[in-house]
Specification:
binds magnesium ion, binds adenosine-5'-triphosphate, alpha/beta
Length: 221
């Protein structure tokens, strides 16, 4: 369970202060599939990175399965993060010098022990429709293919939580639908909790719960 309490994050730019996330409270149960929608700049990415312990809040708490993320050491936090969750970032984040298979396997170097990591990485790439791109480097892939490698990578550590920031933003409709079907399958079969930022009303409609962000604040939609 993810418990977010009175969470705020602001940035100072020159003399201006931007309240990117403003007093947000919400609870997400294990196995939920939640969408977060909202205009550009409304604070979605900031909230996601706060929930994942990548950004430190100005005030408020994020508690995941009883662990208050900012009450533990940096080292414990990164271990906790690696065991529990994975991110699909809004912008491509593959390592250019590694091929698809190696990129997908990268998190296994830091996280928990995964048996048959390379077989599982292959399987995930195949699920993403990239059977013939396992040995290609990011520069040899289209934007949508790179995105699908990043999606495959998010599952390799068998996370309990996936934080996805517009995961299908640059995919065609058909591939987007396939990826969403896979997410829903992972959600029901493996009880993975999904928190998915999206601009697509279709995707939001498929989720059990939708939150809307506006100027840092959040409301159930
Ligand atoms: N590192 C930063 N420094 C200063 N301001 C920032 C920083 N990161 C985000 N912001 C500001 O915080 C606000 C929220 O940004 P955020 O990236 O969370 O929005 P978003 O909802 O994800 O937008 P988009 O849909 O465009 O991705 C914006 O006004 C943005 O300019
Ligand atoms: Mg964003």
């Amino acid at each position: 369970m993810i418990e977010v309490k009175e969470l705020s994050k602001s940035y100072k730019v020159g003399s201006e202060t931007v309240n990117a996330v403003d007093n947000v409270s919400l609870t997400i149960d294990k196995g939920e599939f939640v969408a977060i929608v909202g205009h550009s700049g409304s604070g979605k990415t900031t909230l996601l990175s706060l929930m994942g312990g990548l950004t430190k809040p100005v005030s408020g708490t994020v508690t995941i399965d009883g662990v208050n993320l900012w009450s533990i050491s940096d080292n414990d936090l990164s271990v906790f993060r690696n065991r529990k969750m994975n991110f699909i970032y809004q912008f491509s984040s593959l390592i250019p010098t590694l091929n698809s298979l190696e990129n997908v396997m990268l998190p296994t170097a830091f996280g928990k022990e995964i048996t048959n990591a390379s077989e599982y990485a292959s399987e995930l790439l195949e699920l993403m429709g990239l059977k013939d791109k396992k040995f290609s480097y990011p520069s040899q892939l289209s934007g949508g293919q790179q995105r699908r490698v990043a999606i495959a990578r998010a599952f390799i550590n068998r996370p309990e939580i996936i934080l996805a920031d517009e995961p299908t933003g640059d995919l065609d409709e058909e591939t987007e639908a396939e990826v969403m079907t896979l997410f829903h399958r992972m959600n029901s079969e493996q009880k993975i909790t999904f928190i998915c930022v999206t601009h697509s009303t279709d995707i939001a409609k498929q989720c059990r719960k939708t939150y809307r962000m506006s100027q840092g604040a959040i409301k159930e939609a």
